[in-house]
C-alpha cells in the first residue's frame, strides 16, 4: 500500500462538474493498493499519516501532526501509484489491485483514519474520473510505502 501525501491549504474532488468532497487545511492523501496489502498495512499507514509531524508550530517549524492541528483529510484512490515504467513508454499497472480487492481496502483505510482522528474523512469516488484540485501548503509532499517499513 502506498500513499502520496500533500499538505494543502485546501483540496477538492469534482466528478462530472459536481463537487463531491472538499477540505480546508489538511492532507490530500492519494492511496494506491496492491493485492498483497492487508489490514496490517492499513493500520501502519494510518498511524503514519495521522502522526506525521508536518504542520508548523508557533515557531514555523514542522513539529505538529494532523491530530494536533485539527486538520482535515481527503483520501483519493490512485492506482497509478503502482505504475511500472521499466519497459517502454507506456506504464504498466499490473501491480495495482482490481476493484474487488481494492475497494474494501480503500474503505477500511478511510474508516481507520476516521477512528484515529475522530472526524469524517472526505473521499473521492473509487473508479470515477475525478478532477482533483489543490493548493499546496509549502510544497510538503511525502511518499510512504507500507512494504518499506524498515
Automatic annotation (TrEMBL):
UniProt catalytic activity: a D-aminoacyl-tRNA + H2O = a tRNA + a D-alpha-amino acid + H(+); glycyl-tRNA(Ala) + H2O = tRNA(Ala) + glycine + H(+)
InterPro entries linked to this entry: Daa-tRNA_deacyls_DTD, DTD-like_sf
Location of the protein in the cell: Cytoplasm
Any one Gene Ontology cellular component term annotated for this protein: cytoplasm
Keywords from the named record: Cytoplasm, Hydrolase, RNA-binding, tRNA-binding
Segments forming a coiled coil: none
Any one GO MF annotation of this record: Gly-tRNA(Ala) deacylase activity
Subunit architecture: Homodimer.
Protein name: D-aminoacyl-tRNA deacylase
Amino acid at each position: 500500500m502506498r500513499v502520496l501525501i500533500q499538505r494543502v491549504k485546501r483540496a477538492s474532488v469534482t466528478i462530472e462538474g459536481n463537487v463531491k468532497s472538499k477540505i480546508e487545511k489538511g492532507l490530500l492523501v492519494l492511496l494506491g493498493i496492491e493485492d498483497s496489502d492487508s489490514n496490517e498495512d492499513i493500520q501502519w499507514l494510518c498511524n503514519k499519516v495521522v502522526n506525521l509531524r508536518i504542520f508548523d508550530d508557533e515557531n514555523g517549524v514542522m513539529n505538529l501532526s494532523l491530530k494536533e492541528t485539527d486538520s482535515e483529510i481527503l483520501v483519493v484512490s490512485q492506482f497509478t501509484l503502482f505504475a511500472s515504467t521499466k519497459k517502454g513508454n507506456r506504464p504498466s499497472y499490473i501491480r495495482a489491485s482490481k476493484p474487488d480487492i481494492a475497494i474494501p481496502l480503500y474503505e477500511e483505510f478511510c474508516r481507520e483514519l476516521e477512528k484515529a482522528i475522530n472526524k469524517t474523512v472526505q473521499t473521492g469516488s473509487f473508479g470515477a474520473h475525478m478532477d482533483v484540485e489543490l493548493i499546496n501548503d509549502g510544497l510538503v509532499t511525502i511518499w510512504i510505502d507500507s512494504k518499506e517499513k524498515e
